[in-house]
Design a protein that fits this description.
The chain has 128 residues and is mostly helical. It is built from 5 helices and 2 strands, in the order ββααααα. The radius of gyration is 17 Å and the shape is elongated.
């Protein structure tokens, strides 16, 4: 399926992100708080601790689910570091909290970096 969500890489070639992949990446970022809670369960288990106080629902997740959550969080971290630092917080705020972009850059610049971030996330998650 063709997508309207494209951007040009440094070489100038059009890179297209399929619509379905775009939205899966968007929702992965929006789900980062829950993913962090699941990854914390894995961290607690790896340290040999058995105290899951404050985590009654997430403490019962299987290890493979917690490991997948940790993997997705690491992919988000890797992808956001491919965006200039000045845009990182604003992009995450826009995606997670749906807050408007700051005024220090043109809206098209923000949209371009958002697409770059989501494209890099799709690559990290091995969706493309």
């Amino acid at each position: 399926m063709e997508s309207k969500r494209t951007y040009r890489d440094a070489a100038g070639a059009d890179i297209k992100l399929p619509r379905e992949v775009y939205y899966r990446c968007l929702w992965t970022v929006r789900d980062s708080q829950r993913l962090g809670e699941l990854a914390a369960v894995l961290s607690i288990r790896e340290n040999g601790e058995t105290d899951f106080t404050g985590m009654p629902e997430t403490a019962m997740v299987p290890d493979d689910v917690a490991a997948r959550a940790a993997f997705e969080l690491e992919c988000i971290r890797a992808a956001i570091h491919k965006v200039p630092e000045v845009y990182r917080e604003g992009l995450l705020d826009n995606i997670i909290g749906k807050t408007p972009f700051d005024d220090f850059a043109h809206p098209n610049t923000w949209k371009r970096w958002k697409l770059v971030f989501l494209y890099e996330l799709a690559k990290e998650l091995r969706m493309i």
